[in-house]
Design a protein that fits this description.
Layout (H helix, E strand, L loop, with lengths): L1 H24 L12 E6 L2 E6 L5 E3 L2 H9 L6 E2 L16 H5 L2 E2 L8 H7 L3 E5 L6 H7 L2 E4 L9 H11 L3 H22 L7 E6 L7 E3 L4 H9 L2 E2 L11 E3 L5 H4 L4 E6 L1 H12 L8 H4 L3 E5 H4 L4 H15 L4
Parallel strand pairs: 3-4, 3-6, 4-5, 6-7, 8-10, 8-12, 12-13
Antiparallel strand pairs: 1-2, 9-11
Length: about 325
């Protein structure tokens, strides 16, 4: 048994070593600002000269992937977070495109051998992937947005970063004009009817308990644009847009006039059914007044403009009488 385990470990180490050797022998670009065929991009790991018109883009994050799709650029491959559905419901119109994109592991552990075989001419990522950056940058020009500016709380910054890398600044500018026009239209329809109302957002997740979104989350930023107020407990800045709460204080924690419950998938729905059987559920103000609504977690945590428009549709549906 011990010998078998040792053989497996040695085999794994040899595989990794072989992959690294191939990568080192196949560095296919020069980070040189004097090269007229490329543009010098400043990013979290320094400066990188990227091709003027990349044809084989790889994204090491589904957030980055969805930004690139909104900018009308289809990557040939992408890493996907393992806790997310590969194609969220709000992206049903892009389902065929996404399913044709090669899956390259998780953001924290992209499949380097697969990436090498795909021969990308540009790699874009965000977040804490510094450990793999040296290897990725040997395969292809690689740019990384910083983790602080590109999570849910900084989704705008990451979109603008991706747009800049892809040479789509004009596209991005128009995209924001359209977004804020949609926000103003909704604000006009809502008027002052929610001026003195507070909204709680309860995230039901079978594998992610007792965490609540805050105002520096993706959904919190949209609420801020519209002028909707989160409940006092959630109207704070949390770590990466989240704050912890205890089960014992749930009634007082989610005390808004309106309650949105977010969930995704059968496991979450089962968890929600269990939650509703708990005595505290009927004690919540919004539940007693029948002002609670169930929405999709992946949409309300989407971190991209596709998701933002889907959230706006939800708010029309639930907050606007006879939309």
């Amino acid at each position: 048994m011990l010998q078998n385990k040792c053989r497996k470990i040695i085999f794994s180490l040899l595989t990794i070593l072989a992959a690294l050797t191939v990568i080192a022998c196949n560095a296919n670009y020069l980070d040189d600002s004097t090269d007229q065929s490329c543009r010098l991009i400043k990013h979290a790991q320094g400066k990188t000269c990227i091709p003027q018109n990349p044809q084989r883009l790889i994204t090491i994050s589904d957030f980055t992937l969805y930004h690139s799709l909104f900018l009308d650029v289809e990557p040939v491959g992408s890493a996907f977070d393992d806790w997310r559905d590969k194609v969220p419901t709000y992206l049903k119109d892009k389902k065929e495109i996404i399913e044709c994109i090669e899956e390259l592991g998780q953001q924290s552990q992209p499949n380097l051998e697969k990436i090498l075989q795909m021969k990308p001419d540009l790699i874009i990522s965000w977040g804490d992937v510094q450990a793999t950056y040296p290897l990725l940058s040997e395969i292809s020009p690689t740019v990384i947005d910083s983790s602080e500016s590109s999570g849910n709380s900084g989704w705008r910054d990451h979109f603008n970063f991706v747009a800049g890398v892809l040479g789509k600044d004009g596209f991005a500018k128009q995209a924001w004009i359209d977004y804020y026009q949609s926000i103003e239209k909704l604000k006009s329809v809502l008027g002052d009817q929610y001026k003195n109302k507070r909204i709680s957002i309860l995230t039901v997740a079978h594998d992610f308990e007792n965490h609540a979104v805050t105002r520096n989350s993706f959904i919190g930023s949209i609420f801020g644009d519209i002028g909707l107020q989160l409940s006092t407990t959630q109207d704070v800045d949390g770590n990466y847009g989240w704050i912890d709460f205890s089960t014992e204080e749930i009634v007082n924690f989610f005390d808004g006039d309106i309650l949105f419950v977010t969930m995704t998938g059968d496991a979450d729905r089962k968890k929600f059914e269990e939650l509703k059987k708990n005595p505290f559920w009927k004690k919540m103000r919004a539940v007693k007044q029948e002002n609670f609504y169930v929405v999709d977690s992946l949409t309300w945590q989407g971190g991209n403009l596709f998701a933002a428009y889907a959230v706006i549709e939800d708010l029309y549906k639930y907050l606007v009488p006879n939309p």
